[in-house]
Amino acid sequence: MRRPFFLTLLLLPAFLVAQTSAPKPKQPAAVLDPISPSPAPTTTGEPALPEQPGFPVDVNNYENPLLLFQGEKRDLPMADEENLELLPPVSPYLPGEELPQGNPEKPLTPQELELRALGMKVAASVVSLRVWDEFGNQLSAGVGCFVTADGIILTDTGLLHPEIAEKVDYMTVTGADGTNHKISGFYVADLVTGVTLLQSEAKTSTPLELAPDTNFTEERPCHVLAVSEKRGLVLADAKVQMDSALTGLGWLNLRGTDSPGAVGSPVLSQNGRVMAIVGMKVPLQSWMNFALPCDAAAFELRKKRAPLQPLSKLPQSPKLREVANDPEFVAAFATLQQKRVESAMRKLVQLTRKYPRSAECWALLGLSATYLGASPEALNCQRKAVALDPKAGLYWHQLAFAKMRENAGGLPDTSEDREALQLAVEQRPNDQLAWLLLASREVRDGNLGAADDALRRVTLLAPDYAQAHYLQAYVRGRLKDYEGAQAAISQSLKLNAGYSEAWYYQGLLFDKKENYDEAAKAYRNTVRLRPTHPHAWMNLAHTYKKQGKQTEAREAILQHQKVLKAGKN
Questions:
Q1: How many domains does the chain have?
Q2: Are 426 and 435 in contact (CB under 8 A)?
Q3: How many Å apart are CA 306 and CA 283, to the nearest integer?
């Protein structure tokens, strides 16, 4: 998808767009010194704001995040059918279904029995929804649940995004038992509250009870429901809690280890009442989704029912172009251009309230949080941006950046930044920084072959990038390709002779070849550029000793001890 030009400029890191003559910002510590025993947390330069005013927008190739993206080399992990490995074994069994013949000595646990009973209770109420155009092409897919006895289905409005609303011809409903029918119209489709009430042609149904006014202040257990035509009903354990961050804006954080459900999936309490509806599904293996409480839905159901409208009357705005042309958006962008970040963030918070399904608003709000050093806030926003537009590699890049900033605070490491970087380079194969950060992450994970492949791409895209050649030398050395390592480190030093870590690694390579004269020269260059490098002083002392230079070796050891003592103080 071709992204709006102004956002591409806004979010690109500064050192990727700088001229070669411009000074280069400090690179990630894990890239500069991956062989240090205790590498510093990974970070990178701040994203740069564009100098020129204005922001031309091209939406001719807009791809709605709910589309199935047929014909792609690799489908993103969207809902049910597209990524079956996300789904746990079918559980619970549908009503009337025989239990599997297993070991009679291993009966179901009380927890499994409780889960099975809950599944039997709700199986008839949860449905899979499919949206089609007049040519029979599927536009989107999601989940809903009956909330009245006369066939009203509750789902999330993201299933009927304005970008595809004008193409919708009909919708089909598939029950957990495989029965099918159509939607005859809708009563409400609100993009702000997320509430969509559809009328099913099935005039009799088994409704689920709503649980409005649920207290989400503390994290509470719940179940996420999804329906797969291939695997039946899926009932997964999860945790749900109100997002108390400034950028939370009424959304609930939904986490789990099994199926993430789909847009419109009901979030059930332990007794089977609907507490919330999934509104944004982050397409990651390590999933975290966003839901909205069912309070607005309960309010709509208590009101006098609005007239039934045909699907042709679904809201067809605001589209991407309308959001970008909104004077409030123009003002917020201009404020961010001027680097008045706190003021811009206040404006963008209001915009995301107005346009909660705009990936662009969430991405800019996340960028503002990044500038203010609020890594959790930035991560929250970028997750929403990729959930709304998973084909935008720029947003995956920003998500990875935000995740690495969060991990820099000492939080447990996860696979989210690696997944985000992998998707970033798939969507934007010319993103040098994403390839470099992915290579660095693969090095830390011990995936040296994958790291080498990523570095080949970096050096192809940016052959004058000294840091990439340095990391490539390190990877080649770990792979015992010492000739390749020597060629890469020589290229790194040719591009940047003031790079202390490259001189240090050069010394290690010459040391291994027993070329002690060149090794000593490399270590001397290291300590000249970085006098507090303890490893270089120690290695220089050993090299002098191997050369029979006892006096020089003694002086280097003393320097090594001084550096260690200063570090302890």
A1: 1
A2: no
A3: 34
